[in-house]
Amino acid sequence: MRIFLSCLQSKVKHPIPAYQFWEVYFKNGIEEAGHEWLETEEVDWAEGLVYLDEESLIKWRDRTWNIVVSAIKKKHKENPINLFLSYLFPKQVSPDAIREIQDLGIPCVNFYCDNVRDFKHIPIEFYCFDLHWVPEFKALNMYQHAGLNYVYAAMPVWIAPEYRHSNHVENYGISFIGSRDIQRERLFAESIKSGINLEIRGAGWLSNAEENIQEYQGLPQKVWQKINNQKQIINNDGLMFWLRKVSAKFVAKIPNQLFVPYVKEKPNFDEYIKITQQSQITLGVNRYPSFHYSLTCPNTYSRMRDIEAPMLGACYLTEWTEGLEDLYELGEEIETYTSVEEMIDKIHYLIANPQKRRTMRIKAQIKALEKHNILSTLEKIVRNL
């Protein structure tokens, strides 16, 4: 199968959250599945996520899709393309361009991994795709309600063969790798106060802000503009959302000093692999900040690390959320928690049971590599087109 691929490829490091790994995972996963990927190097897909003003975004979209459609037509004429596979955000999508590709007889499939976090309803821009690759159990009802075709499949993760073993020496303790947000800091602050000796690596843990992420502030606004913006928020998201957003300004900040003894240097790629594999326990956190939910009762959904860490042979303890039972035998392959108290109890239990940790590493890695690989998802996609 020849697959034209759009997965945020870029030769430039843009001031947006990490995205380069998607290209590595998609391309290698497709190759290992025995298929061929195609692209056009003239396009910077990630650039489409940078623009916040509509004029610049429209120019990027027009320029990009003209290049892409022309490239697809040329390559398809030389040797038929069987699938257009993308990871596109709503603002990157050109429905007209997708229809041009479909008119060539090429089905178009889009993967999106933050449906639960980003949407209350599936955006209209997504309706043009033939099929949707949905990794979150909690997002399925949105696609069902919209009447869209979808496959429920794991996050696309590919691990190099040299890392596919689980007999790891434990050189690290209880490790979490990820940026700071209000939900993660509250969870870890409580565990630290309970005596858990965490090792935290990632952006923002000593600065209350994510490093290397630039936020566009725009021009100073007049009073009437600010009032209109607040009205728009209420109209779009509801009064409770607005009240939580306003009250968040008065929530007591957790001092950076609390995390200082526990924060380690931000890892590079090789260190990320090593720490994930060689920690006594690798932690996952599936809650996220959102004003749609109260600070004390956050929503959750399964993340990419729920696939990646087990594939690397980690002893994995993650936050329970719906759908994890579809991926693993909980308590045998991975462990889960639903509260900070349960997380602390599970940490103590696993630290005291080295044989349990070894068994979990082996079982979870076998399951992830055999059942949750990109080959399996491509087979699902073909069956559903």
List keywords for this structure.
single chain, 385 residues, alpha/beta, Rossmann fold, 41% helix, globular
Describe the protein in words:
There is one protein chain. With 385 residues, the protein is of the alpha/beta class. It folds into 3 domains: 2-152, Rossmann fold (3-Layer(aba) Sandwich); 161-208 and 254-371, Rossmann fold, CATH 3.40.50; 219-252, no CATH class. Helix content is 41%, strand content 12%. It is built from 14 helices and 11 strands. It has helices spanning 20-32, 54-78, 95-103, 115-118, 140-146, 182-193, 223-237, 239-247, 269-278, 305-311, 324-327, 340-351, 354-371, 374-384, and strands spanning 2-6, 36-38, 83-87, 108-111, 131-134, 150-152, 172-177, 198-201, 279-283, 316-319, 335-337. The strands form 2 sheets. Strands 2-1-3-4-5-6 form a 6-stranded parallel beta sheet, sandwiched between helices.
